[in-house]
Amino acid sequence: MGESRIVYERRGSGSPLVLLHGLGHRRQAWRPVLRMLETVHDVVALDLPGFGESRAPGAGERYDIAWLVEAVERFCDRLGLYRPHLAGNSLGGAIALELAARGTAASATVFSPVGFTAGAENLGNRLLAVGAGVAARVPEHIRVAVADSPLMRSVARRVLRGTPGPDSHRDVRFDATALSAGSPFVRLAPEVACYSFTASVVCPVTVGWGDRDRVLTPHAARRVAARIAHARLVSLPGCGHVPMADRPALVSAAITETTRTAERPGVPS
Asked: Which DSSP state fits 53?
């Protein structure tokens, strides 16, 4: 069972809130906002299967976005989290919206979710999938050395952070060890590149997009409005693709405003 592989941490009290990270990341991505969120919610931050400490399915087993959605749904059932609030970043945003479409979420707050780019906008995702496959053929010691070079650290800061100056997020780098042949990242990258969100959602939805997101263009937020008419769109100034690291207070506020809206009497769910 997919949910038995999921490692998580839980803190705080109140209505349940589940946090879902992006492709290649782990639950620690949410650390900057946990202290703020746990004062309002029973917060569960998990490692998606294949990332952090959670094991991926075997090489011959199914492993795609739909499978991840089902695994997270079973995980919530096992913990007794009935219709929790969900917050997700990138791949985690898509999983949150898919669960909301199933009616298993009280609300969904998503940041730069995959599934809304098209045509040239999606070129970065497709190049990433191809590049991951190519990099997997390079010996790991070479991949690690290249990723740790000053040039590639600078590229990582520029791609992943909203304020990529030389003194900003010096520890940010690409995880070259995640690009081994058959790794979860390499297996999922093509799935992410071709994924499109098409379902219908009723519960309250907020979509936040960093105005300095260099992975998924902020223009995709307009497509969210076309597919989820009632979604609240929030621009995140100064934020890149992982806004929790850039402006945690802003991200926390976007989440708690959505959850408060969902908990008001008479709000559709």
From this structure: T
